[in-house]
Amino acid sequence: MEKQIIITIIFMGLVTYLPRALPGIIFSKINLPQDFLKWLKLIPASILSSLIVKEILTFKNHNPTINLPYLLGCILAYFLAKKGVNYIVSLGLGMFLVFLLRIIGS
Amino acid sequence: MDNLKQETLQVLKITLPIALGYITIGFTFGVMAIKIGLSPLASLLMSIIVYAGSAQLIAVSLFAQKVSPLVIIITTFIVNLRHLLMSLALTPYLKKWPKKLLPFFFFELTDETFSLHYLNFSKNNNSIYKSILINIISHLSWITGTFLGIIFGNLITDISKFGLDFSLVGMFAVLIAWQINKPIHILVVLISSMFTLFFNFINLNNLSVILSSILAATIGLGISKWKNK
User: Which DSSP string corresponds to A53-105?
Assistant: First the structure.
């Protein structure tokens, strides 16, 4: 049983590693067309926003659930950072707000 | 030497949220893995070689349901497929790196390390030392969190209530604030968010990041080309 689990985990590692490494390794040898580079420059903003939205609003059987502490924490951290507030302070205040909201909420 | 010290301090500062978040979520993973009957060795091994938060938590629930190994492996593949886009997005900045280093660098690519690497690279700062240090601190935090969860899981089960888990999402919010200044980026953020909600709504949660990012970037590129005509 343990052996089967270990083998499964090794394969999980393999199928995780390939999409992580292959695109980067293969494409680092090729000169990419200008349009593709422009497209790639839009990818980080897309990924970041998608990752945030995924954490804040989830669906269970089509019913939405909003993680309100996360939503408000993100809004606070975003605006503090936009105003030029230091990285650790922006995040720390966001975390503190999440902590407070959870105390109030529970 | 001074330069090295400065770079190290910079990395410690920007990687702190990842360290806090990974220890917290790694802890949760360790607790859950032991609870459903995975051995300490198997749990640690997963954090060392798979090293992907959501996939590992999903895998634990699949192991608990005695799902077949093939299904677990395929699910892991699908959940982690989004890294493909991150790997691609970093390549234009890695041309000058020694080729031998790339297989190791990409091994530790996660949502969070990607976002810090991109932040550095887009500011023409692709120091190998800094990048590798970010990777190592993050991976060690994940492994440490898992280890602590395995050891202390029976004493404390939920450490997330203190708000530490928020550090990862919060970091994304700060990075978005720093990097989004062109109108096209704002547009892409909105399109990607809407697609993400749509894909999650139709239960395609595991593919929503990769699908919505591809769609948003493509539409964004189309619009910027059409405007420049």
Answer: HHHHEEEETTEEEE-HHHHHHHHHHHHHHHTT--HHHHHHHHHHHHHHHHHHH
Q: Which residues of A fall within a CB distance of 8 Å from B11?
A: none
Helices (H), B65-165: 69-80, 83-90, 102-107, 111-122, 128-152
- B208 closest CA partner among A50, A46, A42: A50
Residue carrying structure tokens 């804040």: A56
- Cβ–Cβ under 8 Å, residues B209 and B217: no
N-term to C-term CA, chain A: 41
Q: Is B67 on the interface with A (CB under 8 A)?
A: no
- The confidence score (pLDDT) of residue B125 equals 86
**Residue reference for tokens 């990974």:** B22
Phi, psi at residue A59, to the nearest 5°? -120, 135
Confidence of residue A105 (pLDDT cuts 50, 70, 90): confident
Does the pTM surpass 0.90? The reply is yes
Q: Does A36 touch chain B (CB under 8 A)?
A: no
Asked if the Cβ–Cβ distance from B203 to A99 is below 8 Å, we say no
Please report, as a single letter, which amino acid is at residue A98: V
Per the CB < 8 A criterion, the answer to whether B108 and B138 are in contact is yes
Give yes or no for B229 touching A (CB within 8 A). no
pLDDT at B158: 64
Instruction: Show me where the domains of chain A are located.
Output: 31-105
CA–CA separation, B50 and B103 (whole Å): 15
**pLDDT score of A5:** 96
- Reading the block at residue A29, the tokens are 């040898």
Chain segment B49-104, per-residue pLDDT in tens: 999 989 999 999 999 999 999 999 999 999 999 999 999 999 999 988 999 999 99
Q: Which amino acid, A39?
A: W
| Closest chain B residue to the Cα of A34, Cα to Cα | B92
B185: confidence class by pLDDT, cuts 50, 70, 90 = very high
